[in-house]
Specification:
Blueprint: E1 4-8, E2 20-27, H1 30-40, E3 47-50, E4 56-57, E5 62-69, E6 74-80, E7 83-89, H2 94-103, E8 128-129, E9 132-133, E10 138-145, E11 151-155, H3 156-159, E12 176-186, H4 199-205, H5 213-227, E13 235-239, E14 245-247, H6 248-257, E15 264-266, E16 269-271, H7 274-280, E17 287-288, E18 291-293, E19 300-303, H8 310-328, E20 337-338
Parallel strand pairs: 2-5, 3-5, 4-20
Antiparallel strand pairs: 1-2, 6-7, 7-12, 8-9, 10-11, 10-12, 13-19, 14-16, 15-16, 17-18, 18-19
Helix pairs in contact: 4-5
Bound molecules: flavin-adenine dinucleotide and uridine-diphosphate-2(N-acetylglucosaminyl) butyric acid (EPU).
Uridine-diphosphate-2(N-acetylglucosaminyl) butyric acid (EPU) binds next to β13 and α7.
Length: 339
């Protein structure tokens, strides 16, 4: 394992922000990982675990060690007539893993097609899209405890998953490295989920009536490609903010003023699409300096010129938070990890 100094991270974050890491190493096995931690990490040196770099924003150079987890491997265990456990190492690319499962006709991840990043990061924010979250098929992940350097197992309960949330963003923040993740998938009689968003109409466009999991995946990919900018063409990290949930009584007040507000009631709370709030504040497609809110999806902030600094993107996001608060009285929370 080679430790590189003053290493550029421009190709390791999908915003394409030009920052560097004081030290950078790629690890391809658990042994290399523990060796790197034993040899190089002291309490004074900050540590950052890096997957695909698709959900973080570097606002400055990283004055510590970046460990790029590139551990690979997928294993399978048939556990019943129609269920299989599939385990993928942290460094497996998420979309390649979804594709692997679809080729084997394993169902459960098709609605999560084309999400960037790595398998090892998927529990961090319980990645979700089109009516599915990983918590729906998650069985466990193996983690390395950074204090003890022991391997531990976290089941779904211990992960404490929520909407774009898990223990790893809270009490467990910076304490564990996720090594691999196990999912329970179906091998037949798949449960097909087409209720969410535009999946049904996209399947109709494709002339499909009783879709297979592979066809659901295709529909999801088509929808995503029609509105989400490809980070290779324009730097971004997907949704920059979470969709806020507000108490019912607050919602009723906002709705009186803005009757057309889209909303998704959920128990005592009501979820509002942040993209709508941002668009209503006039930000959609608006560019300031090198940063913009995307013209097709206001919730996605983009490095419009390729020259944006992380601080510039962060400052732009602060202006959006202020606008939404002033107009609607609603607090937006950043979804992207700010480093
Ligand atoms: P990174 O950006 O590398 O890391 C994110 C955070 O996790 C960092 O704090 C990092 O230190 C930490 N981390 C990384 N790996 C580990 C590990 N093994 N152990 C411990 N900590 C770790 N997300 C969704 O949920 N749904 C979507 O539909 C979606 N669409 C997107 C569309 C686009 C175009 C983009 C660019 C992003 C989108 N995202 C979406 C966000 C992103 O893809 C996910 O959050 C993804 O899981 C991030 O994975 P990553 O490997 O790139 O993480
Ligand atoms: N909307 C607008 N204007 C916009 C964008 C959205 O008015 O510019 C409104 C519309 O009413 C639209 C609604 O917002 O119907 C929802 O938009 P969309 O279907 O595009 O989904 P989203 O809520 O903006 C969420 C996730 C995405 C995920 C999609 C599909 C969050 C923060 N984002 O976006 O995840 O792919 O649903 O399930 O929950 C990500 O996390 O990075 C991400 C891309």
């Amino acid at each position: 394992m080679k430790i590189q100094k003053n290493f550029s991270l421009k190709n390791h974050n999908t915003f394409g922000v030009d920052v560097s890491a004081k030290y950078f190493a790629e690890v391809t096995s658990l042994e290399e990982l523990t060796q790197a931690l034993n040899d190089s990490v002291t309490p004074e040196i900050p540590l950052l675990i890096l997957g695909g770099g698709s959900n973080l924003l570097f606002t400055k150079d990283f004055e510590g060690l970046v460990l790029h987890l590139n551990v690979k491997g997928i294993s399978e265990e048939i556990i019943s007539e129609n269920e299989v456990l599939v385990t993928a190492a942290a460094g497996e690319n998420w979309q390649e893993f979804v594709q692997f499962c679809l080729q084997k006709n394993y169902g459960g991840l098709e609605n999560l097609s084309l999400i960037p990043g790595n398998v090892g990061t998927s529990p961090m924010q319980n990645i979700g899209a089109y009516g599915t979250e990983i918590k729906d098929t998650f069985v466990q992940c193996r983690v390395l405890n950074l204090e003890t350097l022991e391997v531990e197992i976290f089941d779904a309960e211990k992960c404490n998953f929520g909407y774009r949330e898990s223990v790893f963003k809270h009490e467990g923040k910076g304490k564990y490295i996720i090594l691999d993740v196990t999912f329970k998938l179906s091998t037949k009689d798949h449960s097909i989920k087409t209720e969410y968003g535009a999946i049904k109409s996209e399947l109709e466009n494709l002339g499909i009536e009783n879709p297979t999991i592979q066809q659901v995946s295709k529909a999801v990919i088509n929808i995503r490609q029609s509105k989400l900018p490809d980070p290779k063409a324009m730097g971004n990290a997907g949704s920059f903010f979470k969709n806020p949930s507000i108490p019912k009584n607050q919602f009723v007040e906002v709705q009186e003023k803005y009757p057309e507000i889209p909303n998704y009631p959920n128990g005592e709370l009501v979820k509002i699409p942040a993209g709508w709030l941002i668009e209503q504040c006039g930000w959609k497609g608006k560019q300031m300096g090198n940063v913009a809110s995307h013209k097709l999806q206001a919730l996605v902030l983009v490095n419009a010129t390729g020259q944006a600094s992380g601080q510039e993107i962060y400052d732009f996001s602060t202006l959006i938070i202020k606008s939404v608060k002033e107009k609607f009285g609603i607090d937006l929370e950043r979804e992207v990890n700010i480093i």
